Amino acid sequence: MTRTTIRRPLTVAAATIALIATGAVIAPAPASAHWSCGRAAPTDIDTTGGHHTTGSANMRVGSSTRCAIAGISYSSQSLDYHCYALDINGIDTWTYVVNVQTKVGGWIRDDLLNDGGSLEWCPGQTQV
Length: 128
Fold this sequence. Notes:
Keywords: Signal. Residues 1-33 form the signal peptide. It comes from Micromonospora nigra. By secondary structure, this protein is of the alpha+beta class. It folds into two domains: 1-30, no CATH class; 32-127. It is built from two helices and seven strands; from the N terminus they run H-H-E-E-E-E-E-E-E. The chain has a three-stranded antiparallel sheet, with no helix packed on it. Strands 1-7 form a two-stranded antiparallel sheet. A hairpin with an 8-residue loop joins strand 2 (57-60) and strand 3. It is globular, with a radius of gyration of 15 Å. 33% of the residues are buried. Mean pLDDT is 80; it is low at 1-28.
């Protein structure tokens, strides 16, 4: 499974054809799932580390700009990824991160991360 099969709805059809051709079966993530503001942090299922933001980025208490800011991460600080979720509109992807230097955790929109964010889907997201 590649990241684009879940993250970009426009490529799901093409990815589905490719998966059918190879005999793989995969269900895309629900487009209406997100991580609600203020919920406890998701499980750390992404074992990768050493990630960074592309500049300063707000870390939020949920996967939306509607959620409060938990902290700020700077490109000079390392991030530990936990997993990713969609925003409430089912469009943008967000990764839950823990800033290694400050120990603050929060959600950062994936386009603000140097490598596009986590590849691990967060289980147990809120359904709209």
